[in-house]
């Protein structure tokens, strides 16, 4: 069934309900064949139809407001930081977790360039990620160094996804429709949505583990060099002992090539 047929069927069902309502309430009196009575009947049916439509709209509005409130709660209090950026990379929306991570007031984050918080050494990587997600339409991930409001630096993982935008400026998120940007007529179209995760502890642990591994490698190299030096010294002692007609004091068949013996 195509959309016009569905609308026609809904209209017929609505009129049938209105007709039954009028018949039950006995809104009309007199001669039903009289033209004025017919006109009154049609007006009464139309009035009931409008009342039913208004009630359905009020119920739908209540459902949408409840869904919006649930979304706001989930968005604002999610354990992961969320940002929505416009096509210029300016922050249009942010949740409380992102505010805490970035160490800035919410009002000072809105309409601020996210790139302004990325350290210089990671600027090129951020711009490549942003342009790739915005233009290519594919998800992207990167780990960058970001500066908080108090000047401290932390490592953050960015999981970016392109944001679908309707012509009216509303965002599509699953089955719900959400308004893009800051409330007001000046909100621009959103480009990407970002999930921020603080990975500083993991990065610190990785750096400590790398340092420990490097120390172990240096220790192992020093131990091997020391062992080889000892073997060489013992080889020299064995050689000198043979020259003096004495029995070599060290059993170095595996390393003392001149006196190595084959299997018996």
Provide an overview of this structure:
The protein is of the alpha+beta class and 264 residues long. It has a 5-stranded antiparallel sheet with strand order 2-1-7-4-3, with helices on both faces. A hairpin with a 4-residue loop joins strand 1 (81-86) and strand 2 (91-94). The longest helix is centred in the last third of the chain and has 44 residues, at 200-243. It is built from 6 helices and 7 strands, in the order ααββαααβββββα. The relative contact order is 0.08.
List descriptors.
five-stranded antiparallel sheet; rod-shaped; alpha+beta; two-stranded antiparallel sheet; Beta-Lactamase; 264 residues; 3 domains
* Integer tally of domains: 3
Q: What is the 3D shape?
A: rod-shaped
Computed over alpha carbons, the radius of gyration is 39 Å
Q: State the strand order across the main sheet.
A: 2-1-7-4-3
Percentage of residues assigned to helices = 40-55%
Structural class: alpha+beta
Helical run tally: 6
Architecture of the largest domain, CATH level 2? 2-Layer Sandwich
Quickly name the level 1 CATH class of the largest domain.
Alpha Beta
């Amino acid at each position: 069934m195509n959309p016009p047929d569905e609308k026609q069927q809904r209209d017929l069902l609505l009129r049938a309900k209105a007709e039954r309502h009028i018949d039950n309430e006995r809104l009309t009196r007199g001669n039903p064949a009289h033209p004025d009575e017919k006109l009154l009947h049609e007006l009464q049916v139309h009035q009931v139809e409008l009342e039913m439509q208004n009630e359905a709209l009020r119920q739908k509005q209540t459902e949408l407001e409840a869904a919006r409130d649930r979304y706001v709660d989930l968005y604002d209090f999610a354990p992961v930081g969320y940002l929505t950026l416009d096509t210029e990379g300016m922050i249009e929306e942010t949740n409380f977790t992102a505010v805490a991570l970035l160490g800035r007031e919410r009002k000072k984050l809105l309409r601020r360039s996210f790139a302004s918080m990325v350290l210089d050494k990671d600027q090129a990587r951020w711009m490549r990620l942003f342009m790739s997600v915005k233009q290519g339409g594919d998800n992207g991930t990167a780990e960058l160094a970001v500066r908080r409001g108090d000047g401290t630096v932390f490592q953050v993982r960015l999981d970016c996804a392109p944001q679908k935008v309707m012509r009216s400026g509303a965002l599509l998120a699953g089955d719900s429709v959400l308004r893009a940007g800051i409330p007001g007529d000046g909100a621009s179209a959103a480009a990407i949505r970002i999930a921020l995760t603080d990975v500083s502890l993991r990065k610190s642990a990785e750096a400590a583990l790398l340092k420990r591994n490097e120390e172990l490698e240096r220790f192992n190299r020093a131990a091997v060099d020391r062992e080889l030096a000892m073997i060489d010294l013992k080889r020299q002692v064995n050689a000198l002992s043979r020259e003096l007609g004495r029995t070599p004091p060290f059993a170095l068949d595996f390393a003392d090539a001149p006196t190595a013996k084959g299997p018996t």
